[in-house]
TrEMBL record:
This is FtsQ-type POTRA domain-containing protein. InterPro entries: FtsQ_DivIB (IPR050487), POTRA (IPR034746), POTRA_FtsQ_type (IPR013685). Residues 10-24, 63-77 have a biased composition (Low complexity). It comes from Microbacterium yannicii. The keyword Cell division applies. It comes from the Bacteria. The chain crosses the membrane at residues 139-160. PANTHER family: CELL DIVISION PROTEIN DIVIB, CELL DIVISION PROTEIN FTSQ. Residues 164-232 form the POTRA domain.
């Protein structure tokens, strides 16, 4: 029988087996390829064929596009004579532009600088375009703020100038006091700018009028100063060594009469402990709670303690037992109703110490 033909091998594999010496193994002998002459047929004893343990598998060459760099170089190195290189095996390179890609252009420093400068200009233009509204709004706000500041400074300057000086003083609320006397006392403020009127000097001048309980100043530009006063309410006369002194509910002496008899139309106060006692405070609170028509009929007020205030009505000498100063407003309403129903001329006394159960005798 014939010997089976060997497997086909690539040129590289055949060259590596036939012509190249493998390190560590002896070079193959050409004579080993001669057909062996033996009396035994090869087909009968296939297992007796010699097998080379170091024989490598057939090598299939890879294309340069898929093979690694070192594999491609090894392939080129082992290519058989007469075999041409693949057009994809190596990129074209020219001597002038070594290392450049084919699509890269010649770009110099000047071109790069011009491109960077153009990019900066475009960026600045975009910033200006997007910030023009903000700048306009900021300018408007600054203009408004500056206008307000100038207006405020102008107003303050004009207010503190002689253009707003005091030329007229008006007194409001004076009933017992002559208004002209109060205005003459404050004549020192004439010519002073309204914002610079000295309140301490005004107070020092008004203290000389005991009838003034409270006051308030009001500026009416451009030239008028208004003084609003609240007069004290006199409640009666207290007998003293100097005569009869007119006092209010707080015990402030309003005036003193040197005559030996009290002035008509003003009740006489007979209070134990004087103006600094609790009995006087209770009597003053009772007199301030009375209506004007009833207060005008009172001729005498007596109180030894804060709980036994008694009033005397003129003409009929009827007594009004008031008691303490508690619920004085309600007691006054009950007394007015009782006097309207039964006049003082027909009554001896009105007991309103308990407003829920009034007693009339």
């Amino acid at each position: 029988m014939r010997r089976p033909s060997p497997l086909p091998q690539s040129p590289v594999a055949s060259r590596g087996v036939a012509g190249a010496a493998v390190p560590g193994r002896p070079a193959p002998d050409d004579r080993s390829r001669e057909p062996r002459s033996s009396g035994v047929a090869e087909s009968e004893h296939p297992e007796a064929l010699p097998v080379d343990e170091h024989e490598t598998a057939p090598v299939i060459p890879l294309s340069p596009a898929t093979a690694p760099p070192d594999t491609a170089s090894a392939t080129d190195a082992g290519r058989m004579p007469g075999t041409e290189k693949s057009p994809r095996a190596k990129a074209p390179r020219d001597k002038a532009g070594a290392g450049r890609t084919p699509d890269a252009g010649d770009v110099g420093f000047r071109e790069v600088w011009k491109a960077s400068r153009a990019r900066r200009k475009a960026l600045r233009a975009e910033i200006r375009r997007f910030t023009v509204r903000q700048r306009r709004r900021r300018a408007i706000w600054l203009g408004v703020a500056a206008s307000l500041v100038l207006l405020a400074l102008g107003t303050i300057g004009a207010a503190y100038s002689p253009l707003f000086g005091v030329e007229k003083i008006s007194v409001v609320g004076a009933q017992q006091l002559p208004a002209d006397d109060v205005a003459d006392a404050l004549s020192g403020q004439l010519g002073t700018p309204l914002p610079l009127v000295d309140e301490s000097a005004v107070k020092a001048e008004l203290v000389a009028f005991p009838l003034i309980e409270t006051y308030a100043l009001e500026a009416r530009p451009p030239h008028e100063l208004v003084v609003r006063i609240v007069e004290r309410t006199p409640i009666g006369l207290i007998e003293t060594r100097a005569g009869y002194t007119l006092v209010d509910a707080a015990g402030v002496a309003l005036s003193t009469s040197g005559s030996g008899a009290p002035s008509p139309g003003t009740p006489l106060l007979t209070v134990t402990g004087g103006v600094d006692s609790d009995a006087f405070a209770a009597a003053g609170q009772v007199m301030r709670s009375l209506p004007d028509d009833i207060r005008a009929q009172v001729t005498e007020v007596t109180a030894s303690t804060p709980d036994d205030v008694t009033l005397t009505l003129g003409g009929s000498n009827a007594q009004v037992v008031w008691g303490s100063a508690e619920q004085s407003a309600r007691k006054a309403m009950v007394l007015a109703t009782a006097m309207a129903a039964r006049p003082p001329a027909d009554v001896v006394s009105y007991d309103v110490s308990s407003p829920d159960a009034i007693v009339i005798r």
